[in-house]
Amino acid sequence: MTIQQGQVGGAPPVAAAPPSAGTQVASLERRELTGPFRRAIFLLLLAGATFLFVFPFVWLVSASLKDRATVFNSQLFPPPLLFDNYSTVFEIAPVLNWIWNSVFVAVLAAGTVAISSALVAFAFAYFRFPFRNALFGLVLATMMLPGAVTLIPNFLIWNALGQVNSPYFTPLWAGNLFASAFYIFLLRQFFLGLPRELFEAARVDGASYPRMWWNIALPLTRAALIVVFIFELKASWTELLKPLIFIRDIALFTLPRGLQSLVARFNPAIGGEGEFQYVMAASVVITIPMVLIFFAAQRYFVEGIATTGSKG
User: Fold this and answer.
1) What are the chain's domains?
2) Do 256 and 239 touch, CB atoms closer than 8 A?
3) Calpha distance 101→253 (Å, rounded)
4) pLDDT digit string (tens) for 201-242?
5) How many whole angstroms separate alpha carbon 225 and alpha carbon 187?
6) What CA–CA distance (Å, rounded) separates 71 from 199?
């Protein structure tokens, strides 16, 4: 006589007793209590992290509205608030020129790198050619090359071309015509996620490769292009090293270069005037455009980041 699974000595298996009604009610009550508690903890942590990120900017705005004696104290917005500090900044320095120069450089740099990187990324994603992966790896390897290594050769090249202190700011943006390894990698991941059948159908209909790139690839990767544009816009807007090397005329300064000149002017350690509230006001002027641009393009920015992560 064989003993079936679950039987001991031929005894029939004992079924597990179903949970009682009281046990089910207690479990539901625990879930109802735990859910709001976890949500409250999460919101508190989120509020704390938000405060840590926002507080430096709040302090900066506060310092920009103080006088020389109280600019570095710990009080936030003590009376009186000196809004005239902002108008004074525009009087003591050509800030409007600096703003225009920064806009000109940032838009050109972001636009050229987005288009050029998209061209190279589409080539790596669509075309099949020998040593494609090796060449792509070589492109990515350039990201490991420090910018300081190419700084002197770049200066010598632009100086030989007569573009140092150029009113067209050529050294600050023209290098982006040759694409960026990081943006090539990012956009290639998007292009690889597009169905290849779309491009094959376009080829059957007689579309050229540039037309496929312009009419199919770019519209379907709009979020990625906006991410690239915002990244480079921010990088160019806050760039100090290149303007410090290639720009000498104060009227051609960008905002970071102009801010550096104000710091040198008001720094008491080197004989300056010590009016750091004007430096703080200029810092707010530099920061606010980037905050506004992020909120204006937030939907595309978050969509692009999320899609990039999903395509891994």
Assistant:
1) 90-311 (1.10.3720.10)
2) yes
3) 7
4) 999 999 999 999 999 999 998 888 988 999 999 999 999 999
5) 8
6) 60
pLDDT digits (tens, 9 = 90+) for 301-310: 666 655 554 4
- Report d(CA 128, CA 142) in Å as an integer: 22
- Measure the CA–CA gap between 86 and 275, rounded to whole angstroms: 13
- As a whole number of Å, the CA-based R_g of the chain is 30
Backbone angle region of 272, left / alpha / beta, with phi > 0 → left and psi within -120 to 50 → alpha? beta
Pick from 109, 53, 84, 60: which is nearest to 286 by CA? 60
Q: Residue 229: enclosing H or E segment and its boundaries?
A: helix 222-237
Distance between first and last Cα of the chain = 59
Torsion, Cα of 214, 228, 165, 88 (10° steps): 130
Q: Which CB contacts under 8 angstroms, 24+ apart, belong to 28-35?
A: none
- Residue 291's SS3 state is helix
pTM of the model: 0.81
Count of residues making up the chain: 312
Letter string b/e over residues 266-279, b meaning 16 or more CB atoms within 10 A of that residue's CB? beeeeeeeebbbbb
